[in-house]
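README: folding subset

This subset contains proteins for which both the sequence and a predicted structure token string are available. Records are stored as plain text. Below is the entry for Galectin (437 residues), shown exactly as it appears on disk.
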Amino acid sequence: MFVAPPGYQPVYNPCIPYLGPIYGGLRCGMSIYVQGVVPHHATRFHMNLQCTQMEGCDIGFHISPCFRGWDKVVFNHFQGDRWGSEEKTHHMPFRKGEIFEMVIIVDQECYEVRVNGEHFHRFNHRMPVESLNFLQISGDITIQTINVIGGGIPAGGYPGAQMGGGYPGGMGGGTEVIVGGGMGGGTEVIVGGGMGGGTEVIVGGGMGGGTEVVVGGAGGYPGGPAGYPGGQGGYPGGPGGYPGVPGGYPGGYPGGQGGYPGGQGGYPNEIGGGMAGQGYYPGGAGGYPGANLPIMGDQPIYNPAVPYSSMIPGGMSHKKTVIIRGMIPIGANRFSINFLVGGSRDIAFHMTFRVREREVVRNSMINQIWGAEEREYTVNPLQEGQFFDMSIRCGHLKFSVFVNGQHMCNFFHRFQRYQQIEIMEVDGDIQLSYIHF
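--- output ---
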């Protein structure tokens, strides 16, 4: 199972209305990525960055596209039971019946809003961003992906860590133990009480081989309803949101109402999820599941051109995660991702996605010689016209590849000194939304 590293909080196919935590709170340098579809019948929807989960709480940033009459997008804040002065524009970047991508970048002075790769609006801070802990979405909208990016692990850890908590559903964190063995070899054992967490043990073995054993209980992100409380809501009043329409990727991540499989997740003082929420975020032992993973950088590279080539900040390292978010255009044939060794230009890990044949080919090229191809995979949700979220994680034994939260394939190291991998390249029929190291 995929465990998100600190600085990356993905949510796939949430139900609307949606209310979810920003773990550790919002901070400058972070950004929130939202990808969804505006239904043909849409009249309005809104997104709030707010202080608590309670109805009527303060809202630091509010955006509300309205499609009635003369289209407009309204920005505002809500504090002390009062709305502030509106900022609005009649330039409407959202289109009924069409997919959109929106990024809210938290700068020192303002929120910068980008829609479909283009700058849209700047909204100056009216409240301290550190006071904002929840994202709320409601109205006529279908959301396929939400990613809270940047921030790392806050001081004092994530909520519930002091009480054996962490993410709802008991996703264990874990430790790592390495005993004997040569470089990259041995046995990898993951034992945990939740999804993707637990203890990693690498024991003995020579260079290259290895066995992986995963033992763990159920768990996960909250699988139960996570909607905004009912009653009066919206902007600046009236009935709270509309029921959401399930959507998203083919073969999307299994689970309940908008999340990883697990119990009835729940926020503080609510019933359900993990340890029944006695005033903290429920969860199993181990705290935040990705706490032993390297922290992601604050800001991704948004909308890079293809072909893309970049140095990997700090080079490749154990447990480092590279995230590629993009879309496969209609009519696409294939695209490839390469991880190269600095100096020699050996390709330590090569992936080609043959879209029409629905094949995922992995290989390496060392000393100018291609190795044996590998074609097996667990699942391949990549299709023309679909967005995807790919996470590539480097371990002592292998690379693990996840798409939309689902495990796709592994590639055991053929170039054992993976710390010398310094370059990543992306080429072919692909539109990149962002790359995050």
